[in-house]
Amino acid sequence: MQQDGPAVSPSSASPSASPSPSAASFAGLPGFPSECLLRGLLNVALSKGGDYADLYFERCESASYVYEDERVKTVGRGVSLGLGVRVFVKEAQGYAYCEGLDEAAMKRAARTAADIAAAQAKPGPIRITARATPSFYPVERPSLFSPPADKLELLRRGDRAARAADSRIVKVVCSFTEEQREILIVTADGERFSDWQPLFRYGIHVVAEQGPKRQSGSSGGGGRFDFDFFSHKTPENYAKEAVHVAVSMLDAVDAPAGQFPVVLAAGDSGILLHEAVGHGLEADFNRKQTSNYSGRIGQMVASPLCTVVDDGTTSHSRGSINVDDEGAVGQRNVLIEQGRLRAYMQDKMSAKIMGTHESGNGRRQSFRHEPLPRMTNTYLLAGQDQPDDIIRSVSKGVFARRFSGGQVNISNGDFVFSLTESYLIEDGKLTAPLKGVNLIGNGPNVLNQVTMVGHDFECSDGIWTCGKDGQSVPVGIGTPTVKIAAITVGGTKA
Amino acid sequence: MAHVETFSNQKQAELRGLAEKVAELAVDDGADAAEVMVGAGQSLSVKIRRGEKELLHESESHGLGLRVFVNRRSAVCHTSDLSEDALRRFVHETVELSLLSEPDEWNTLPDRSDMVKPGQALPDLSLWDDATAALQAPDLFDWTRRCEAAALSFSPKISNTDGSSADRNSSLGALALADRAGLAFSGASSGTYCSFAVEVLCDDLEGKKRNASHWSARRAVSGLASPEEVGREAARRAIGKLGSQKLPTADLPVVFDPDASRALLRTFAQVISGGAIYRKSSYLVGRIGTQVASPLVTIVDDPLLPHAPGSRVFDGEGLPARRNVVVENGILKDYLFDTYSARKLGRTSNGCAGRSVGGSPHVTTSNFVLQQGNLPPEALLHGIERGLYVTDMMGFGFNPVTGDFSRGAAGFLIEHGKLTHPVSEVTVSAHFDELLKRIDAVGNDLDDRSATMTPSLRVSRMTVAGH
Q1: Proportion of chain A in helix, strand, coil states, percent, rounded to 5
Q2: pLDDT of A9 above 80
């Protein structure tokens, strides 16, 4: 998993006519798609005998603004529009897509996807019924339809605040990226689901210089919010945080090397959980028995202090979904309850093979990709400890506050995550800032080493993007302050 | 296969015509200059597991990216709707959008005199292969079945498989640049690529699983490795990891195999781009002409290698592609520039702009090569009493601004010049400047499967953190 870069590739063109989706139409096209067209496409998809098929229409409009060297450096817009068609036959899937909504091209995609099967045609649905979905991120003033000048002002304010905060700041890059995704899922079971997913992210990156020393810091936030988000989360605050990181790290000392207790700050540290257990609980790895959590439902896999949930229903969070990309509504799933493994995160194919229910985790990057079991917002729930007591309990260790990313090997459970802001703990107090360092651990081992959990649960600000099999999706993370009794710190001071 | 070739040639001409037309449309609409990239691709990918089909994914895609300049302001937009009316609207909206940006004296197209000239002969790098473009799903399924079967039957220790996948891609692109004086550059390119991979697992103690993968990739199908050999290699690697343990924390000599070395060279690529330099986001700011690596190290960016995965004949801004020496015998010779970063730094571009349909041009490496030495890889272990041999790297632990480097690693313990026990869950750390200067041996085993090409490397000392 990684943070979005400061300059996400810009995207482009015609703003859509209406800021609200209508049950009867898609992409602002009146009467599109007709029930007749949908049934026709599903019939083509099942024409070679597939067991199941679905259609995924998507229109995604995006924009980006980059402010650098005290000017709006570039602006961009993009629109992508297309249809992905999927056909199941036993454990295999055929997938094809077309760019645009040309009827002949859509039929061609359906025919191509159908080719995974080789039997007698099966009939498609006779009727298609629209299904209601929950509404976890209603917005009145969507970012993408707010005036661009307002976004440029946010960038200018961040830049000004960062420069004013400290004379050692020599470089500031602010960025704003946003998208508005409209999806329509139609299944061979005769159901249709639609959703409309707003998303934005504000980011600021600064470089501080002092003599020969140079350091960088970044901050940002966002989610599926209304544009008035910025009346309480101000660019000035993000600027202050980024400057604080860069300036404090100017005095960073070499990090220790070896096993130490590590205290994870509330919020962003959720990345540890995402890597250490999250991926390993995705059902595709478990139905194939390639995860080190395979076959362990009901067993203790973590310290009893750990309760882990994946929650697609958090209000306005970056990882929330009203409906997943296969037509299962977003839900809250308890994965680990007081240390005991309760459930995996399922997509349709895995649930079918494992004989269980979908869990609202079937997600895809776009109409060009087949769904996979993916996390939404993954949290470690609050415990009882006072955060100060947790730090006081460590005589020599590391306090980790900010991260640039992490990675896991699903099969053996080894994971790393990279610290960008961390401090030495000596005799229960935070002392010197530490140079960038990696932590490496093994998922189940590390979760068994969780010995204190704070009462101060926090969600991370919405900046994280998770990658799997070449597909990126926005996710949320969150934790309280947590103590890990021992984990390997990859510093240079052996 | 005649139809494939026709597809490529006709389609290239068509895309090039479209790029030229849209660039000229943008200038007619009020842009001082415009740059258009059109891309089209066909791809096929398959996956099998335990011999059964798991996925067949087939697609045709296309898109158009436009960058316009109006009074040194710019906007970059993209669309997949290539119908005439839609493109007209798209061009107009892009020109209007540029007014939101602010004038930047460095923000223009490259000078015409630097671009590839009309009629200038460009080298033929053999990046397209008809037989590869013509590959069908049964061909790919055949490789994956053979590859996985060879891995599974290699040893009873191989207990599970994550499956085998294969891909075939054909891509076509066209780039056109125009300004008030008319069309300045237009060119087209095409390429094919195919690959397959397999991942298998063994059961280890304490319920741990050990996994390893192996792969082959080429522009032309005739150059691919045998699926059986790739499968057996994946199995050998997985079995080699059985019983992996942490090491005690220590400073040790570290040997990186070509896969692990690739991760080091990708790290270096981040800090030699003009963009990183003008943003002061590189520890190599101000270091041209100084020693940045051991004298054994020479690094070049070479887009002109025939058949190679990262080759190109012109860059994303219409400049002729050229070979650039970045590090020669340890001395930093130059950074890699696109037009904007070069101008910001008072230089001229050395032709390293990459351009995709979805984004602005920015510095990208082509074939980025750490040149091989003359030692066979085994010789790198000679004389090491105790050290670490790294085959896998994990994570993102690099701060480009300071050069602090710390990554997860796995591989083998080296004792008395031989690989002994498998090692996992350790980190290797050093300041990147020190790491490169401490390279004291370079293998003769350059791995050219991907666009970042590296041999085995030995670093005299790094901090290995374990228990």
Answers
A1: 20, 40, 40
A2: no
